[in-house]
Amino acid sequence: MNIYIYVSMIIGVNEVGDCETACTVVVTQPMEEPKFTSLLRSAKAVEGSPIMLDGKVTGHPMPTIRWLKNEQEFIPDGDRVKAYLNEDGTFGLTFEKSTGDDKGTYTAVAESDEGSAARSNANVAIKTRLKEGVEKSAPSFGRPMGDVACDEGQKLRITTPVKGNPIPEFSWTKNGSPISGNVHFFSDGELVSTFINHFDITPHVRNLYDTKNGYIYI
User: Fold this and answer.
1) What is the pLDDT of residue 83?
2) Which of 47, 61, 124, 146 has a 20 to 30 A CA-CA distance from 81?
3) CA-CA distance, 176 to 48, in Å (whole number)?
């Protein structure tokens, strides 16, 4: 519980003299049970591509987040799979490179000393890169990427459809160099996406047969 303490004082003065009195004021923040204000959303990805499950939680004191996979305790390894919880209540689970074993139902359990736990679920599906029974083909973009404008500091999602068998791997660059920092990339086998603030970026996809590039300026 957050407790704020300060002293209030009154001083009275006239031509005869003065007087004063003081008191201590204690302000406490009310307790609040955990509550999700943004729920997890299900995700699908191509094997080897990143995945991010994210949401937002409130409560006082700030809840902790415990993860389950298929209703069993799930502890991220801190390397390929990482969990985070920020001071503003945003939280998530990130998979740097997904594998077939990552498929399943993930549950975020928000807990605090105040009371009952809140839960949010998301299903994760993983595709293999090679489509069995489908002729192999070079990668291509389903449509050209168009120009996009956004306000500085705003979150932006950029998505473009891709084709190819095996399902292409992909990368994004800024001014010809790989993008780093607080940027997230995703691929579900039909679309490639990036979540970003503001960059000039070029998506690049490749499989065993050919390469293609597309351009977008922000």
Assistant:
1) 96
2) 61
3) 23
Q: Read off the pTM.
A: 0.69
Q: Amino acid letter at 145?
A: M
The DSSP letter of residue 200 is -
The three-point CA angle 187-176-162 to 5° equals: 25
Residue positions counted in the chain: 218
CB atoms under 10 Å from CB of 48, counted, come to 15
- Domains annotated on the chain, with CATH: 32-127 (2.60.40.10), 137-213 (2.60.40.10)
CA-wise closest residue to 172 among 147, 150, 193, 142: 193
Query: What sections of the chain are H helices per DSSP?
Result: none
Give the residue-averaged pLDDT of 73-82: 94
Evaluate the omega torsion of the peptide bond into residue 76 and state whether it is cis, within 30 degrees of 0: no
Residue type, 25: V
The one-letter code for the residue type at 1 is M
Q: Which two tokens stand for residue 203?
A: 């998506």
